[in-house]
Amino acid sequence: MTLHRDTGVASLDRLGPADLVETFGYLDRDPVLNVYLLALTLRDALGQPRDEFWALRREGEIVGLLHLGGQSGAVLPLGEGADRLGMLAEHVRARLSFLPTRFQVIGPRAAVQAVVERLGRADTHPRLLRDQLYMGLERGRLTPFERLPELRRACPDDFDLAYESGALLRAEELEEDPRLNDPFAYAKRVDEECRDGCTHLWQDDLGLCFRASVSALTPDAAQVSGVFTPPERRSRGLARRGLSELCLRLLERSRSVCLFVNEFNAPAVALYRRLGFMTLADWGSAFYDTGPRSPGGRRGR
Fold first, then answer.
1. Vertex 128: Cα angle to 123 and 129 (nearest 5)
2. GO molecular function: any one (predicted)?
3. Is residue 102 part of a domain?
């Protein structure tokens, strides 16, 4: 591992288990914004062979990180400054062969934009590009609500419900039906969600009221994703009550709850703010399909 402590020259080094303390030190500078990367590091200890963690160092100090998911397709850049982000983005371009044909770049908006720009020079464009807001809710700031004991963790018996509702969610949010585009991987993911209990469901006699998942959990933050209410049941306060209950439970284990939401989704942004969420950062996501059927990139509404 080259550190270049005396010259100030930047280096990009592959991280491993020996780098855990240094990696945690960098990510802990903002444990809410970096909760997903922290959760990955806690889970795999930088030792997952199908993933790569890279550190950008200057004068021996980490100034940027890049996660490449060889199986998941998650590309997670983190850093500040055009030159640093440019180096991370160039490394994504150089490691495209390591990634699956369908991958997604998620992170601070400037970092995502740097990757999108660099890949665009190589004629690789996202099929979908989203500007988003990263929002957080601190313990003690949740707006009072009526408790919801009916909210429960999904179990294996919920596979059909989770499968169908998750497909509707992705079709609405990502403009694709995973049952058609990647049915095997999608079914496997739903099976894991039901087995691990990371997805929470609320049903009544009419069917599904609300669902949401917990994608990362540390003592500092819990990241919520996949918030969904069926279209025919919206504007009835179901999402407000369901998400409030989930947040209250998560705040018993973590100091804050966070999520990211499409900037154009005004109703969702308004809901989160009513619950007590505050905007923490500009965020972004870019979804790629480099297979032969990949359409041209377009920005979200």
1. 90
2. acyltransferase activity, transferring groups other than amino-acyl groups
3. yes
Give residue-wise pLDDT tens across range 230-268. Answer: 999 999 999 999 999 999 999 999 999 999 999 999 999
Interacting residues of 174 by C-beta distance below 8 A, sequence separation 6+: 128, 287
| DSSP alpha helix (H) spans, the chain | 20-27, 35-44, 82-94, 109-121, 159-174, 178-181, 183-196, 238-250, 266-275
- DSSP secondary structure letter of residue 127: S
Interatomic CA distance for residues 170 and 185, integer angstroms: 14
Pairing mode, if any, of strands 152-153 and 51-58?
Answer: unpaired
CB 167 within 8 A of CB 269: no
pTM over 0.90: yes
Structural domain harbouring 222: 152-280
What tokens were used for 197?
Answer: 């209990």
Split into its structural domains, the chain has a count of 2
Asked if pLDDT for residue 292 goes beyond 80, the answer is no
- Same domain for 119 and 213, yes or no, is no
Collapsing DSSP states into helix, strand and coil, what is residue 37? helix
Going 272 to 215 to 50 to 30, the CA torsion angle's sign is: positive
- Is the separation of the CB atoms in 228 and 210 below 8 Å? yes
Q: What is the DSSP letter of 299?
A: B
Spatial distance between the Cα atoms of 155 and 245, rounded to a whole number of angstroms: 19
Phi-psi region of 98 (alpha: psi -120 to 50; beta: other; left: phi over 0): alpha
Q: In what order do the strands lie in the sheet with 61-69?
A: 10-14, 51-58, 61-69, 74-79, 102-108, 278-289, 128-138, 256-262, 222-228, 207-217, 199-204, 152-153
Q: Can you state the angle between helices 183-196 and 159-174, rounded to 10 degrees? A: 120
Q: How confident is the model at residue 182 (pLDDT cuts 50, 70, 90)?
A: confident
Is 96 domain-assigned? Answer: yes
Residue 7 one-letter amino acid: T
